[in-house]
Amino acid sequence: MSDFSGIWIPLITPFVDGAVDHAALRALVRRYADAGVAGLVALGTTGEPATLDAAEQDAVLATILDAAQAAAAGKATGAAATGIAPRRPLPIVAGVSGNDTAAMRARIAELNRLPLAGLLIAAPYYTRPAQRGIVAHFEALADASAHPLVLYDIPQRTGVRLELDTVLTLAAHPRIVAIKDCAGSLDTTLALIRDGRLQVLAGNDLELFNTVCAGGSGAIAASAHWRPERFVALHRALVEGRLEEGRRQFHALVPQIQLAFAEPNPAPVKALLAAGGWVRNELRLPMTRVSDALAERLAALSEEVA
């Protein structure tokens, strides 16, 4: 069973001249493997999966998995020369979205063949089913999956919350093991942490500090695309009980986190990575580039000494 503690990055999908930029995607995977992040989420909201056709989604996932294996192989070669134990490939979680349970079960059957750490799944969007329908939906998907499931509670995108009783019911399923918590309810976050059956990951990046200090497992943080080592160090400081150091690191990251969500995600993250030379500043409609004013602030951030 996968461990979902630590800092996870929900990867962007780089584009060049309208097509997926697989070379840039590989470079990002290697960058984050070297930074020591816990894992990556492919085809999450930040990866713009709604604008990728089925073949593109499969290709993106294949590139990420291959790049993670290659990064581990490179580390193994270096480790062999130093006598240090090699690190396993970076765990990859795949996002699966939709509001048709049968179609999602079919997609999950395809993903069962891949060496994934898990699947990240939000509530059915737009249809806004009753909570009993949400429970039946997730249980059907978990039954069909060979991989652990991470619930994704993000009502501002789906139109429906995963109520606390619903999540606690789903926690009884052996393959539902974690939750990306974007509901913005401290009561719910604390209740899930105290229940202890699910690993609780902050999904709103500004809640990373509070969630981990309260006993949560970590975060799936889009803002960690930039300076990922600092997010990893923050998490390590908190879990090791170095609260003052962790507080100082978090406060230093707050301006970056705020800029990363000053306009709709993932446009600010892509602008920041583009300013650093990692990707082209391209998105697919209906997503658009950040405003010129925000672009200037992100460019200034990219030039700051880490």
Automatic annotation (TrEMBL):
Enzyme Commission no: 4.3.3.7
Subcellular localization is given as: Cytoplasm
TM annotation in the entry: none
Q: Name one GO molecular function term.
A: 4-hydroxy-tetrahydrodipicolinate synthase activity
Binding of pyruvate: at which residues? 46, 220
Q: Which CDD domains match?
A: DHDPS
Query: Belongs to which family?
Result: Belongs to the DapA family.
This molecule's function is given as: Catalyzes the condensation of (S)-aspartate-beta-semialdehyde [(S)-ASA] and pyruvate to 4-hydroxy-tetrahydrodipicolinate (HTPA).
- What this protein is called in its record is 4-hydroxy-tetrahydrodipicolinate synthase
| Organism this protein belongs to | Paraburkholderia sejongensis
